[in-house]
Amino acid sequence: MHGWRQGLCPLIFQVFSKTMNNSSTPQLVPVVAVGCTDIGCVRKENQDTWLVDEAQGLFVVADGVGGGPAGGTAAQMVTSTLPRLIAQRSTEIPQRSRARAVRRLLRESILEISREIRKTGEYDPGCKGMGTTVVAVWVRWPFAHIAHMGDSRAYLFRAGILTPLTADHSIVALLLRNGEISAEEAKNHPARGCLTRFVGMDGEVYPETQALRLETGDRLLLCTDGLWSAASDAEMQKLLSSASCKTPGRTVGTEPDPPEDTEYDMFSTMEGRPPCRPQEFCKRFSSHPDLRTICRELIALAKRHGGQDNITAVVVEIRGNNETFHGG
Asked: How many domains does the chain have?
């Protein structure tokens, strides 16, 4: 799936994965997710993209940087190429040391995309210097494997508390961590937006990776800086607290067509599925109203604070009973 542009584009799914033991029987991991993006209130183009891959349990948010309009091209290269690379290479993961092997696969795949972005810039002057942030989560029960470069973030919402999982790769974040500037100074610092690590940068630079052991009811928020720079953690936590998960995973029935005046700038679907018109979208994919409402309100919150940048959010929710799953 390529990047989704302006508009709200929700998906819900149940992720099938293999158990972590020697069984080859697919295991149903109840996960639901919704993604949305908005151009914001100032920018003329949306260079954010997002991906939900229900077959692999893969969720990605990317924010194009550098190279003028080509930043959006770099972001789309991430969301279109990463699921293909993971699908091709995931069969190579050994049974032992699986968690480390999964994160290594994520690192190598993103590094390969970085090389492809640089190569594209070499042959196409219009793409020279383009790059993108990335935050990717690959759910392989009982872990969420996370990789990121740049200042797109992953958060964990658990037991009513929102906790950042990633540390920004930026000059301002480095100054803040070293105590050289205050949080208030960081908001308007002249180096704001200058990244120290991103996909497409020169050199063989890997993403930062980690593994999170999941629990039933966890929510993961992936977002670009257009959301977290406008809204406070407390505001996002309040929205994510609404309608917390209490029931096993299920597929919700299709919903009515969206209003005729709903604006969708572009539609792209998973590989093998044809594009769909806005009125067909809710028929093609079932959606979860609670998560969709959360995504809408996150976007609206950032826009109420000025919407200075493109705004993108993906909300992932782990459902079901922990005792249902087996594997270590």
From this structure: 1
- Asked if the structure places residue 49 within a domain, the reply is yes
Query: What burial class does residue 276 get, using C-beta atoms within 10 Å of its C-beta: 0-12 exposed, 13-18 middle, 19+ buried?
Result: middle
Q: Which two tokens stand for residue 45?
A: 């183009």
- Predicted confidence (pLDDT) per residue in 115-173, tens digit: 999 999 999 998 999 999 999 999 998 899 999 999 999 999 999 999 999 999 988 88
Nearest-10 Cα torsion for 238, 242, 248, 252: -130
- How is 211-264 classified by DSSP, letter by letter? EEE--TT-EEEEE-HHHHTTS-HHHHHHHHTTT---S---PPPP-PPPPTT---
Predicted local confidence at residue 320, as pLDDT: 60
pLDDT of residue 191: 77
Q: Is residue 272 part of a domain?
A: no
pLDDT higher than threshold 50 for residue 288: yes
* pTM for the predicted model, two decimal places: 0.79
Q: What angle do CA 49, 171, 120 make, to 5 degrees?
A: 45
279 domain-assigned: no
| Encoded tokens for 218 | 């966890």
What is the rounded CA–CA span in Å between residue 217 and residue 264?
31
Phi/psi zone of residue 299: left (φ > 0), alpha (ψ -120 to 50 degrees), beta? alpha
Output the domain CATH number for residue 157: 3.60.40.10
Phi, psi dihedrals of residue 275, rounded to the nearest 5° = -60, 155
Q: Which residue in this structure is represented by tokens 């991103």?
A: 198
User: In Å, how far are 14, 18, 278 from 218, measured between CA atoms?
Assistant: 15, 20, 30
Which helix or strand (DSSP H or E) is residue 173 part of? Answer: helix 171-177
Which structural domain, as residue segments, surrounds residue 297?
Answer: 7-253+285-324
